[in-house]
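Tokens help. One example:
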Amino acid sequence: MSKPANDPALEHYIAAVTELWQPDSATNPDTAHRVRELMSEWLHSTTPDTAWVRTLKTEKSSGFPLHTNPDHGFIQMNHYHAGFRTNTPHDHGPYWVVYGVYEGEVEIPVYIYDAASNTVRVDRIDRLKGGDAVAYLPGEIHSTRVPTPEPAIVLRFLSTDLSQVPRQRFKPEQIVT
């Protein structure tokens, strides 16, 4: 699915992000924090009858891009995360990401890497509910999990297409307490 028609809140959000984008934005922490603010505003202004919300709830899609910017390369994704869904720790290489929650609840553990043992341990856990958004900067290792049986609608803004980006990924056995 591509950008739904007649979504003024999404169009305003994407226009605001495009307007602030600079050549170094994909790796710039200041841009990440500004996009986080814009995403939170967008989440609060999006209604349940918005086409992408209805589609995501109906199809229970693991994710599709709402917008891919052809000039700057950033991608706004959305995801339906089933209850108790979890993923493994990872980073986004030299790029940043913003996660937001439209509906439901998500926990995002942030990890510290120990190169000597090639393990990670939880440093903090960010807890997001509807309307919350948080930026993870280049190299920050994190994972996502839905801590309840209810699903969550999660938005993920990628500062670049990650399909060709070297990233760190960790297996469950590499997580220490």
Summary: The beta strands are 64-68, 75-81, 97-103, 105-114, 119-129, 133-136, 141-142, 152-158, 175-176. Residues 8-176 form a domain with the Jelly Rolls fold (CATH 2.60.120.10). The mean pLDDT is 95. The chain has three helices and nine strands.
